[in-house]
Amino acid sequence: MTGNARIHRRSLLIACVTAGIAAALPASAMPQRFTQAAFDAARTAGKPILVEVTAPWCPVCRAQKPILSRLTAEDRFRDLVVLEVDFDSQKDVVRAFNVQKQSTLIVFRGMQERGRSTGDTNAGSIAALVAKSIDMARM
Fold first, then answer.
1. How far is CA 48 from CA 11, 32, 88, 113, 138, in A?
2. Of 24, 117, 136, whose CA–CA distance to 67 is shortest?
3. Is the separation of the CB atoms in 29 and 80 below 8 Å?
4. C-alpha angle with apex 79: 76 to 81, nearest 5 degrees?
5. Left (φ > 0), alpha (ψ -120 to 50) or beta: where does 119 sit?
6. 110 confidence band (pLDDT: 50, 70, 90)
7. What pTM was computed for the model?
8. Which of 49, 38, 53, 101 is nearest to 79 (CA)?
9. H/E/C letters for each residue in the chain?
């Protein structure tokens, strides 16, 4: 076997192993920028939704990020749609949701709002809030 063939074979092996590891990791709800179209589609589909009103300068928002990241990596939240609203640049959306402050979390299941909180950095209470968005039968 030539040197180039060994390198190609090794590269292929590494790519396969990496793909296998990535496939074995739990799926995570990747946050996306809020759009009315994405929100409407998720509501119509009956999806669990987390609307996260955030600001880059907000220390409470920064404290919420790792908590939400851990939660959305859990299998029970695999169908959760996470929509981020920028408090400073999406004022129309902030007003539409009647949000007064950044660090507001709002959960929906389909067409119904299930709960909201503002300024919460307690992992347990945030988990309880987000759990309101999923079917109780799956818990």
1. 40, 14, 25, 10, 12
2. 117
3. yes
4. 120
5. left
6. confident
7. 0.77
8. 49
9. CCHHHHHHHHHHHHHHHHHHHHHHCCCCCCCEECCHHHHHHHHHCCCEEEEEEECCCCHHHHHHHHHHHHHHCCHHHCCCEEEEEECCCCHHHHHHCCCCCCCEEEEEECCEEEEEEECCCCHHHHHHHHHCCCCHHHC
Both tokens of 19, joined, read 């793909």
Strand 48-54 to strand 112-118: parallel, antiparallel, or no bridges (unpaired)?
Answer: unpaired
Residue with tokens 């909201």: 116
Q: Which two tokens stand for residue 117?
A: 């909180």
Q: How many residues does the chain have?
A: 139
pLDDT digit string, tens, across residues 47-67: 999 999 999 999 999 999 999
